[in-house]
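Reposting from the mailing list since nobody answered there.

I have sequence plus structure tokens for a pair of proteins and want to know whether others read the tokens the same way I do. The first protein:
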Amino acid sequence: MEYEPTIGIETHAQLLTKSKMFCRCATLSSLQQDDSSQGAIAPNSLVCPVCLGMPGALPVINGTAVEQVIMAGLALNCQIPEISRFDRKNYHYPDLVKGYQISQLHLPLCRDGWVDIEVNGLGQRIGIHDVHLEEDTGKLMHIHGHSLIDYNRSGIALMEIVTEADLTSVAGAREYVLKLRRILRYLGVSSGNMEEGAMRFEANISLHPAGSATRGKRVEVKNLNSFKALLRSLEYEIERQSTLLREGRAVLRETRGWNETNEVTFSQRSKEMADDYRYFPEPDLPPLVIARECVERIRAQLPELPDIRYRRIVDEYQLSSYDARLLTDERTVADYFEQAAAEGRSRGLSPKTVSNWITGELFRLLHARDADIGKNPVSPKELAELIALVETGAVTGTTGKRVLEAMFDSGRSARDIVEQEGLTQISDAQQLSAVVDQVLSANPDAVSQFRAGKETVLRFLVGQVMRATRGKANPELVTTLLQERLKGS
């Protein structure tokens, strides 16, 4: 018998606020973004009586965090209720310093939303049950048989986005989480950096016979800290549960963990009886009244979202779907492209030409130097100036690539580099003729092969001339001069 999965995903995303959710302590992300902050941040140095849960310490709601969650909810097509409330979620774990977490259960900030994804060319709408706000826990580290706790993360504003159980494949789960991260990064409310723990997942998965409307027992897999962990755990659970069902054994309703090394899930605790977190309204915080004027003000601040920007860039710049996807995957890249395209338009450059340089040479340099496009030293205007030098024949394409690398490393303009290093393209026929004659004299075998009918050797000879001129020779003129000499013209 074939079985089909039903999947729901809970995403925890740290918000990019300067202070924690309920106190004035600085957040890790705010210090890491501050260039004046040097060196590593010492463990347990970003703490106070509030985020350490000291008796008598009172929390105060971070208004920026509330607005960021509302913005995310609006981008995910959610309803924003007029009343929201914080609750205490009681459970005991070493990294939960107070013995409870301030979260939202009954009256979240956002609910009843949706996001559209595309899987294998087919559209699918994934329901968003709610988006709520809570505080993060501390961080446990297990080193040489000892367990250490760092509470710097404790109390950081955390947004939880909960889907309906609408996902039906691992491929769909992948498309959903990638799109969700793209939206959050466009909004600027979360970095989405998995390696920094800024985004984590929990997955709920059950299997049922193909075509059946009755869902099976739900298994929760917790603490998935990467896209790979999420997708591999889903693949493993589908295989594990399928095997159990085919053998006539029951799938237990339980919470499982993920072993990254062995790539298997393992049982943590049974959920046959519902977890009793003893939720009750947070007594130290009043309900939030969300004025409609506030919601509309935040709605007006929404940026152009990824799907809309993708479609506009395809239409406005006449780019392929592939190019537009590359350029709109990150908001900073899309911003850079549109600025460079505007600068290029005034210089007679096509958007396609600008796109090719960004997705080709610029991306290569950014990757090689592990740099972010928003902080790279080549501005959109300077890139357009370089491309114009290549397109007008002032420098060759090969030289242009070298100049871009020099711009990236030195911060100098393309024109300065070309002038100071004498990289202007050689288009003087008399000057190039001397170089062509030298190359032909040094390669008699290639000359013989060409005259014997092996015309592909011409590319080799062109390359030798380009090497002799350090890439400055006009390649079209070089080709013409070589053909004239080889054919005895």
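The second protein, same order (residues first, tokens after):
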Amino acid sequence: MEYEAVIGLEVHAELQTRTKMFCACPVVDSTQTAPNTAVCPVCAGMPGVLPVINAQAVMYALKVALALQCEIAQTSIFARKNYFYPDLPKGYQISQYEQPLAVNGKLEFSTPQGLRSVRIRRVHIEEDTGKLTHLGDPQGKDPQNPARSLVDLNRAGVPLLEIVSEPDLYSAEDVRLYAMALRSILRYLGVNSGDMQKGVLRIEPNISVRPPGSPVLGTRTEIKNLNSFRALERSVAFEITRQSDRLRQGQRVIQQTMGWDDQLAVTIPQRSKEDADDYRYFPEPDLPPLVIDPHLIEQVRAELPELPGVKHQRFIQQYALSEYDASLLVAEQEVAEYYEQVVQAAPEASPKIIANWITGELFSLLNQAGASIAAAPRAAEFAALIALVVHGELNQNTAKTVLAEMFHLGTNAASIIAERGLGQISDTGTIAGLVQEVLAQYPEQVQQYRSGKLSLERWLFGQAMRAAQGRANPQVLQEELDRQLNI
């Protein structure tokens, strides 16, 4: 029997504030900062301390909720979520439960099958936990290297936004595309860096399977703390297969929390999956209700930037780009801005040609260097290079060489072309002489061409271009080669 998957996502995004959610400790890079150095009695969970709400974190949370078209609660309540874990110093997490900041939103994103829409159940504010580092032999078989865990509380108390979707996703690919679209929005808003390797954005899919068309959801499992899109897609695909296989074998799916082993490419049970009652939620007695002025909501709404989905449609309409090109260019706000700067600086080139140069040659150079768009040549200099190609002063292959030197050396196209004599040869007399020399050098191939082996023309074209050191105008060269071969 076949089964269909039903998937909802919980996404935890750290907010890029200067200080933590309920205290004045700085938010630091936990991968770079010495452990337990950005900690105070409040985030360390000492008795008798009082938390204070971080206003900037609330503003960032509002931005995200409005960008996701949510209904904002004028009054929301912080609650204590009680559970014991070594990196949770208080024994409870300050979160929101019955009265969250925002509900009933949606996120639209592009897929190969068209536009998809996923409902957002809730967006709420909470604090992050600390970080555990596990050392030693987890099997306990090496007495010289026993299993142990180290706790770093630098991350404890960092503002965290939890974004919970409805179970509106049905494949591992759609899960990945949804998560990428959400990450892009967070980066456009400037509230999260999107650096998943550093744990500032963590994704937890809830997965169940059911017979196709059944209105009843199956038993779900949750995969915890995924920090890459590759791991997300692979783990969801594996879990769908695992659950389907169990049901086909007459076994039941157990509600539990799973971990993902990326090396073995399997999910591993961690603990039984808790329900809300297990956390014994109750209102946080040390924090007042969070009341949001309606005027503030409208102010934040008015200040939202053009978001990726809107920009994607505008690029298609304004620049006549394909869905694919537009999606590549708007995924990162800095890339989209760079593209429009080049378009403005090179009016002689079509937006499609510029898109091809950026998503092709420039992206290739950036990927090889492991660099961001900030490492690209200045937009005006890149535009000048493209203009040279459009005007026939540089051919495509030479322009690629020039772009690589611009990227690696930081110089402009004009100086590279002048220094290396790379300007395109378009003079008909010069090209006629080059063609004449090549045909004289290869009389046998010329005779074969004239006897009917027409494919040799491409080979002779290549020899002529090589003789011109790649600088000949391809159109002029082709026309002269045709003329001389058919005299």
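Reply #1 (J.P.):
I read it the same way you do. The first strand starts at residue 4 and ends at 14.
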